[in-house]
Amino acid sequence: MRLPETWPMMVAAPTVEKIYHTPLLELIHHAHEVSLQNPLPLLKAKLLSVKTGACPEDCAYCAQSVHYKTRIEKHPLLPTQEVLNAARQAKAEGAQRFCLGGAYRQAPTGESFERLLEMVRGIRSLGLEPCCTLGMLTPEQARRLKQAGLHAYNHNLDTSENFYGKVVTTRTYAERLETLKILAQENIAICCGAIIGLGEAEQDRIDFIATLVSLPKAPESIPLNLLTPIAGTPLGEQKLGNAEKIALLRLIATCRIFFPKSSIRLAAGRNQLSLIEQLFCFFAGANSLFIGERLLTADNIAQESDTSLFRLLEKADVS
Ligand code: SF4
3.20.20.70, 3.40.50.2000, 3.40.50.1110, 3.40.50.720: which CATH number matches 13-312? Predict the structure, then answer.
């Protein structure tokens, strides 16, 4: 497979489409070659919900939106010490990155923001990479987070611009892109991913990758999620099967080809994959995952179950 000469800049959607539609095993083979040429360490991240629920946005997949009746335990912003204790624990469990998730439309101002800055400083001083996902940011907020030692900021595009309005109506794709632009301007590493299983078409996944390619700065991390249907949300009855898992493989492999240096992270929905399916995702180009039993409000994977995966991924000789 030959990459276009303009790669990795200015790649048009038809080029992404051509690569995405390569026969599956050829696509994965090529993505694996790219991984071998640009070896990346296994990056383990842990995500803590520091402010849960009561979010004014209406993301159709989310348990934390005020628009849906779901069974979650809401809480305001956690005390700093509690967050730093969790970060310490994450480090002891092997995490390199600690992410703070807050259910906000826009990062808060005033005392709450000051506390978040304090958390970022504390996480940095523990020797972990701090990451936040707090909704939209102003340039000033981005600057202050960067000064506090923030490594990366997560702001997912979820899907294509075309399909976005079917998933979220309380904000626009353009607003999402604006925050990503601010992050690039403030030189904060961008973490930006997608969700499979929203009811999107293949073209939406292709267009999502084409949008990533056109960002002012390549994402440092790309978290790829399989929808976790949550009762009470509009997507609570969505059924996922092999088609979505194969789409995940295509998405991972295509992203690896276009972003040889980015961390491609298996994020939510990893508990829907068998050990072998997860290994195949790593073969296709993933190099990162979330550890821990909870991922915001959803179940992730028990530590014991991940032990075999890490043994297989990290040790050359496995018995
Ligand atoms: S995904 Fe984030 S922004 Fe959307 S409703 Fe949930 S917490 Fe709010």
Answer: 3.20.20.70
The better pLDDT of the pair 311, 192 is held by: 192
Residue whose CB lies within 8 A of the most ligand 1 atoms, among 55, 72, 153, for a mutation test: 55
Cα 80 vs. chain centroid, distance in angstroms?
24
Helices (H), the chain: 13-20, 24-37, 80-92, 110-125, 139-148, 161-167, 173-185, 202-214, 242-258, 275-283, 303-314
| Residue pointed to by tokens 């009855």 | 237
The set of residues, in sequence order, having a beta carbon less than 8 Å from that of 300 and lying 6+ positions away, is 268, 270, 271, 290, 291, 292, 293, 294
H or E element that contains 48: strand 43-51
CB of 167 within 6 A of ligand 1: the answer is no
CA–CA separation, 291 and 94 (whole Å): 9
| Amino acid found at 45 | A
Q: What is the mean pLDDT of the chain?
A: 92
Closest CA to 268 of 64, 122, 81: 64
Residue 60 alpha carbon to ligand 1 centre in Å: 9
Taking a C-beta distance cutoff of 8 angstroms, is the pair 191, 153 a contact? yes
pLDDT tens digits, one per residue of 132-181: 999 999 999 999 999 999 999 999 999 999 999 999 999 999 999 999 99
Q: What is the mean pLDDT of residues 29-39?
A: 95
Query: How far is it, in rounded angstroms, from Cα 137 to Cα 105?
Result: 9
- Spell out the domain ranges in the chain: 13-312
- Residue pair 73/126 in contact (Cβ under 8 Å)? The answer is no
Distance between CA atoms of residues 55 and 115, nearest Å = 19
